[in-house]
Amino acid sequence: MTNPTVFVVDDDAAIRDALTLQITLKGLRVAVFSSADEFLAAYEPHMRGCLLTDLQMPGMDGLQLQETLRARGVILPVVVLTAHGDVATTKTAMRNGAVDFLEKPAEDDGLIDVLRNAIRIDAERFQAERQRLEALERLERLTPRERDVLELLAEGLQNREIAERLEISPRTVEVYKAKMMEKLRCRNLADVVRFGDIARVGANAQSAALPGSASI
Amino acid sequence: MTRGLRQAATSRNVGAAAVYLTSYLLLDWLSYVQPVLKLGITPWNPPAGLTLAYLLVFGPRWFGVTAVAALLSDVLVRGHSPISPTVLACSLWIGLGYGVLAAVLRRWKLAQPIRGAAHAAWFVGLAACTSAVVAAGYVAIVAAGGELPRADAMGSIARYWVGDLTAILTLTPLLMYLPAWREGLRLAAGRSWEVVAQLVAVAIALWIAFGTSATDELRIFYLLFVPVIWISLRWGLQGTMLAALCIQVALVILAQDEAHSPPLIDLQFLMLTMSATALLLGAVITERSDVLRRIARSEAQQRALLAMAPDAVLAIDRAGRIRSANPAAHKLFGEPDDPGAHVSAQSLLPALALHGEEGRAAIDGRRHDGTTFPSEVAWAKLDAPAGEGFLITVRDVSERRRAQEALRARETALARAMRFAVAGELASALAHELNQPMTAVVSYLRSLATLTEPYVAQDERIGSTLGKTTQEAIRAAKVLRRLRDFYRGGTSKRESVDVAELCGAIATAFEARARRASTELVVRVDPAVAPVQWDTTQLEIVLHNLVGNSLDAVMQREPPRRRIELCAESSEGSVLFHVSDSGPGLSADVLAHLFEPFTTTKSGGMGLGLAISRSLVRARGGDLLHELRGKLGGATFTARIPCKEQ
Questions:
Q1: Sign of dihedral through CA atoms B290, B295, B301, B307?
Q2: Does ipTM come in above 0.90?
Q3: CA angle A202, A206, A210 (to 5 degrees)
């Protein structure tokens, strides 16, 4: 894991320079790019932090960059900067998953707070993602029967009902449940339910959104 | 083909010569009465009239045929020897004399059927001169041959001359009208009772003048002129000459009876006088009827012209009263309350001031019901023969005035909207360009605030100054933004725009420029295109810019290849306006900044047209696209306008 960095994309050199100074003075790392393409070429999945991008740029603009990143499964939080803050563009940017929206020039000195917030979101997302991966990894170790028991338990069924459903004895259910909870390191039923969710989502979403397997 | 025609002409001429020869011999035989010493000198010589008519119609080059006719006549009718030099010389002289007369008449364009008094007078004069020369020559030749006593020479010349001239004046004009004999017969059949009455009148006059012993020696010959004048008034030249011919035939027959006959030379002069009078009178009457017919035709044409004229035409007299008005005038001014009253031009055109020979004025017209309208008036003075006064035309120009005003209003609106759009685009461009450095400044100032934090404790003013500086920079940026927003929003209307009408208006606006630039401007609108909900003026600005750019682009081509096409079609809930041209297309360096403000390839351009157009279209959910090489070889720009605004 690398140190969180603010990736600034803006076609105006003075703005890049000024933002670099402003952000580094507040103790954050900054990397600047003069165009969306330049950023896309340099970005690697392990990089942490947030993206601060201008909307109006020659070539690929901010909204298109956002869309490209989303299509590639990059979960890096995006903060959008724009000089012409009209409603339609703002809506589109937010729908594309921008975490915040700043006007150029920003009226109050909220930029650093916004960036810190974005970095925190990134960290959370990353943390959540790592936990999900770990959970998936543990789920891999379950036998099919243990997995069945997990899913039925997560649905809220009692041991007896599970036994009936799977046509095995409640005793055997107890045994699978114990093994399953040990493998998943679950301490209580709440943990089991959480894993059940991850198993369901993981089965559907595969691991496309994982930073580790994202392709840039 | 030509040979066939020539053969036909030859056979026609030979046939005509044969008919002429036969007729000549027959006439000569019939009219060979009271000759002088068995010579060709008779009181009335119709063959001369036939000869002249023949030469006039077929040309003087046939004079040889007439000489042959004279010779044959001498041999067959008078029993002369054909080898006598006198007879040969006389025949040749007669042929030559009338050949010359025919040539002169043809040369002076008098060889047509006589229709006027001047023509008749010239004809009489020339015929008199020629026949006198022919008569003198003939008598001289005969006298030289010793066949005529010298003492009789003058009498013979007079007799010969009058005999020939009378026949020429009577028969030649009549024969010239021979091709129209059917028409004459039809006319006569239509008024047969009158013809009979006139014949009876002629017979009575002849009987009174010659038939009774009481009226001896031509004393009341003038009675003969009464029926002749009557006939000439009713029938013109043809009828008169026919009557004169009849009377002359009758006189010649009467002259056979030598016992009752008046002196021959008196009778001859009577016949000559009658011929000349009949010819001149008939010509005058014919001319008069021609003139009357021409006047009637031109009056009918004028009436039709006035009736058809789209402008009101008024004829007014010197007192300013309206004498006549055409249907357009009645339609324009309406009908007066009292149709019988005299209407003055002043009441219809209060500001009219007539002066000079002719003039024009743009004044208001007033209808009979009191309403007024703008009009263009032109007048011309009428001179005395046409009745003194003025002829006035009035044209209602209110329609044209309205159309001009509408066009001007539209142009003004477009120009104002265009200025507004230019200002908006300028403001927008300015806001963008200045906002960037302002953003950098604000950012730098915030860095400075961070950097000076340690010193703020020493001097509080550092912090407050920095804060105020930042606020001022932000305020400047806000002003720019407000300026841009002012032009961006709130100025556009939403109305139903008829696409075909819009394209037509654009084509009309560019018509003159395109014609000057020898450029073909084609508009094609898919009839299925639905109206769009949009601001007409803004759409007009967009299309105006695109077509204007195309017109500049095609100027780089030679005239026959200058073409621009404006198409409109429906496509997935939008209307696509394509503007294509045959210009050189877009170059790569222009392309990179095509829609950015201040990008231009024109020396006089600001480079805002495309930027404005795209801003206007995009502001309401449309788009402006381009192709490097469109259908006409140059660039194609496409404005996509959603039918319903997003």
A1: negative
A2: no
A3: 95
